[in-house]
Amino acid sequence: MSCLMNVARSIFCAVALAGPMISASPGVAAEPDYATHLQALQKTVPKGFTITLQKPFVVIGDEIPSLVRQRSTNTVKWAVEMLKKDYFSRAPDEIIDVWLFQNKASYEKYTKSLFDDKPDTPFGYYSPTHHALIMNISTGGGTLVHEIVHPFMRANFPQCPAWFNEGMGSLYEQAGEENGHIHGYPNWRLPALQKAIQRGDVPPFETMMRTSDSQFYGRTSIGTQYSHHYAQARYLCYYLQQNGLLTTFYREFTANVKSDPSGVETLKSVLKATDLKTFQKEWESFVLKLKLD
Ligand SMILES: [Zn+2]
């Protein structure tokens, strides 16, 4: 787990770089042993929590039971169905617990006592080490959908670079359904990105897409530009979505990742662009015209 807080309401919910990667070898994996896992949870989960099975997740929350079940169905089940429909054929091989803490106090208390974590985001994070999505659900369901993307991406596209993993997670942190498909909408990451574009402070796509995961998450210095990476990646995904190219890009990128680990060549191919400089100008004017509802 690692999440860095930036100024204002930015979240950088980074996916931990360590931990075992799941192979994406073809074939149907055996279903995890949910019954044994649930039995173990009954013994360890603190009193006052509701536990509901929502495969491949187990949702555990300390809000009133009806609300925990509602979130399990309306957010977790919905997001899983939508994401599987458009992107992810493979479920995570492991059982992942979704902890929904009812407020800041509960979130801070239990991240310490259950996981010995001290989160640097007030919203939530994905911890591959603990096989868990850990959320302060009082901040809203958007971060939960964002985090649900990560274990699915890990299972289906283990070579996925951070920029695309976070671009997709961020896209769906403000999402609804259109024509039976998940759809991301402009959100709070927009104004800072628009200001950065106006200042000429957004790096070329090649630079952003070729960052290592450590660089993307700001664990190594590449200057101050990384603070816009999440928004830049999100609104690149948003642009692709709006032009009907996002599912194509995902499919082709997963197929091409060995020869094109950054996605730069795949992006050019999907956009039918010879270079990304011209595209970036078009994308910047597209982003500058976007408005928050
Ligand atoms: Zn994330």
What this model shows, in words?
There is one protein chain. This protein has 293 residues and is of the alpha/beta class. The chain has two domains: 2-158, Glutaredoxin (3-Layer(aba) Sandwich), CATH 3.40.30.160; 181-289, no CATH class. Helices cover 46% and strands 14% of the residues. The protein contains twelve helices and nine strands. The protein has helices at residues 34-44, 65-86, 104-115, 142-156, 162-171, 190-199, 205-209, 213-216, 229-242, 246-256, 264-271, 276-289, and strands at 2-5, 11-14, 50-54, 57-61, 96-101, 124-127, 132-136, 175-178, 181-184. It has a five-stranded mixed β-sheet with strand order 3-4-5-7-6, with helices on both faces. The protein has a two-stranded antiparallel ribbon with strand order 1-2. β1 and β2 form a beta hairpin. α5 (162-171) crosses α9 (229-242). The model is unreliable at 1-14, 16-26 and 221-225 (pLDDT under 50). Bound molecules: zinc ion.
Structural class by secondary-structure content: alpha/beta
Radius of gyration: 19 Å
Overall tally of domains: 2
The helical percent reads 40-55%
- Which descriptor suits the 3D outline? globular
Straight-line distance between termini = 32 Å
Summed up, the helix count is: 12
Strand order of the largest sheet: 3-4-5-7-6
CATH superfamily of the largest domain: Collagenase ColT, N-terminal domain
Which molecules are bound in this entry? zinc ion
Residue ranges: pLDDT <50 for 5 or more in a row? 1-14, 16-26, 221-225
Order of helices and strands: EEHEEHEHEEHHEEHHHHHHH
CATH topology of the largest domain: Glutaredoxin
CATH architecture of the largest domain: 3-Layer(aba) Sandwich
Major beta sheet summary? 5 strands, mixed
CATH secondary-structure class of the largest domain: Alpha Beta
Percentage of residues in strands: 5-15%
How many β-strand stretches? 9
